[in-house]
Amino acid sequence: MENVVFDRIQKEIDAHDVVLFMKGEAAYPQCGFSSLVVQVLSQLGVTFRDINVLEDNDIREGIKEFTKWPTIPQLYVKGEFVGGCDIVREMYESGELQKLMQDKGVQIA
Fold first, then answer.
1. Which residue in 13, 34, 65, 70 has the fewest CB atoms around it within 10 Å?
2. Using alpha carbons only, what angle is made at residue 101 by residues 100 and 104, rounded to the nearest 5 degrees?
3. Exposed e or buried b for every residue in 38-64, given b needs 16+ CB within 10 A?
4. In whole angstroms, what is the distance from residue 101 CA to residue 66 CA?
5. pLDDT tens column, 42-95
6. What DSSP state is assigned to residue 70?
7. Within 10 A of 68 (CB to CB), how many other CB atoms are there?
8. H-helix or E-strand containing 1?
9. pTM of the prediction?
10. What is the share, in percent, of the chain residues with pLDDT greater than 90?
């Protein structure tokens, strides 16, 4: 079971430059932390794949195991786990997130 979920998670991460596992959807975040990460990505003008963990309990629990990270949202850039809300916010404020996106070849506005 776990491997099937991990495979689904890995496929999403491999298929998209920027993936956000979140509660709700980008247009309608269901938690403040997810909303904040969406705002940061939108501010950067980054195109990203949003995956609503509330629609799929296997993914919701599996993503925590996959990264050994206990909270959602979780942001991936070009296959690399970046972090959750606090890390993304701090990286954005320091300019690190913008640099990471550029280093990885992700278009930002």
1. 70
2. 85
3. bebbeebebebebbbbeeeeebbebbb
4. 22
5. 999 999 999 999 999 999 999 999 999 999 999 999 999 999 999 999 999 999
6. -
7. 7
8. none
9. 0.96
10. 94
